[in-house]
TrEMBL record:
This is Phenylpropionate dioxygenase-like ring-hydroxylating dioxygenase large terminal subunit. Pfam families: Rieske, VanA_C. Residues 35-142 form the Rieske domain. It comes from Leucobacter luti. Gene3D superfamilies: Naphthalene 1,2-dioxygenase Alpha Subunit, Chain A, domain 1 (3.90.380.10), Rieske [2Fe-2S] iron-sulphur domain (2.102.10.10). Residues 1-21 are annotated as: Disordered. The keyword Transferase does not apply.
Length: 358
């Protein structure tokens, strides 16, 4: 039996209050008010070379000042438009490569103009646009506009200590939702992951999926099989997505302990992502070293890429502008779409309420 479930079906009471914008417009607005990673923590050293990043078309610079504080700012120097990713990082500021203007790491205020003898005469409005910063899971996170929800904290990762190892990011010409759906789709395993997973059943058992707010969960047993993980034995997998862009599996082995693989796609544009992803081992995990788990999970990612990058469209058709058909095995990804749309509508309601209050 197949199910026809348009992505645009209203799923909560909030759906009725956001009728003036298309679903895509609401989704894009929600992403601007959401946290996304823009760099790996390990790539930023105190006072080291700043890094360029792009988030939803916004050109950013990411750096760690001499005091060790991570900062995210507009890449454009507000003096004459120089690229600050070519600049120099100081103790508590970043300097422009063109005229040497320096901007404070915290609030972006201009703190030095070399061409002015009396620094008290720095233009009082001279300021670099800065963005909020969080550092978590081995990544630097930011949001282009005030976040509607706090940065993810997954309860299954809070119960014990984990050591994270972030992989080299992947560049992929598809959208955030398509990327997340691929991470958590289970029906493609026997066709795409024959090498990494070995033979897996084509028929997907009934999936038990739950959703609350932006979160979607599913528990599923993993039989060791004959793939690369056969030696680890059976385990239980907890699938967990958080809209807009966190997708993880926590593996719970009866004898080995717990390990994680997680993807954090970051939108360069609506149909282009930089996939930050990594693995984590619980401190008590007695299975393969974290580097080996990273290698094996990378096999899975690389098997997916040539398939997903040739999908059409390159992002979920949020307004049902392209017909899709779904099957029961798609219940997890359909719930993720609903969670994303719910987030988008909550974002719209929150912004409208703020405008009314002002």
């Amino acid at each position: 039996m197949s199910l026809t479930i348009p992505a645009s079906v209203p799923t909560t009471e909030a759906a009725t209050s956001a009728t003036q914008k298309s679903n895509r417009e609401l989704i894009e607005q929600a992403m601007r008010h959401s946290w996304f990673p823009v760099a790996r923590s390990a790539d930023l050293t105190p006072g080291g070379t700043p890094q360029p990043a792009t988030l939803l078309g916004s050109q950013l610079v990411v750096y760690r000042d001499g005091q060790g504080r991570a900062s995210v700012a507009s890449r454009r120097c507000p003096h004459r438009g120089a690229d600050l990713s070519l600049g120099k990082v100081h103790d508590a500021s970043i300097g422009c490569p063109y005229h040497g203007w320096q901007y404070a790491s915290g609030d972006g205020l201009c703190v030095r103009v070399p061409s002015i003898e009396d620094q008290s005469k720095i233009p009082p409005k001279a300021k670099l646009q800065v963005f909020p910063v969080e550092e978590r899971y081995g990544l630097i996170w930011t949001a282009l506009e005030e976040p509607i929800e706090p940065l993810y904290r997954l309860p299954e990762w809070e119960r014990e200590e984990f050591t994270w190892l972030q992989a080299d990011p992947l560049d992929s010409p598809v959208g955030v939702a398509v990327t997340v759906e691929n991470f958590r789709d289970v029906a493609h395993f026997p066709f795409v992951h024959q090498v990494s997973m070995g033979p897996t059943p084509e028929v997907v058992e009934p999936l038990q999926v739950s959703r609350e707010g932006s979160h979607v969960w599913m528990f599923r047993p993993l039989n060791a099989g004959t793939g690369e993980w056969a030696g680890d034995g059976d385990c239980e997998m907890q699938y967990h997505c958080v809209a807009p862009g966190l997708s993880s599996i926590t593996y719970d082995y009866a004898k080995l302990g717990r390990r994680v693989v997680a993807g954090f796609p970051s939108p360069i544009s609506f149909e282009h992502v930089k996939i930050f992803w990594g693995v984590a081992n619980a401190t008590e995990f007695t299975g393969a070293p974290i580097e080996e788990n990273l290698r094996l999970e990378e096999m899975v990612y690389l098997e997916d890429i040539p398939i997903v990058e040739n999908n059409h469209p390159r992002e979920v058709p949020w307004d049902a502008e392209i017909e899709e058909f779904s099957a029961p095995a798609d219940v997890f990804t359909l719930n993720y779409r609903r969670a994303f749309l719910d987030l988008a509508r909550r974002t719209e309601e929150t912004l409208r309420a703020r405008d009314t209050a002002e």
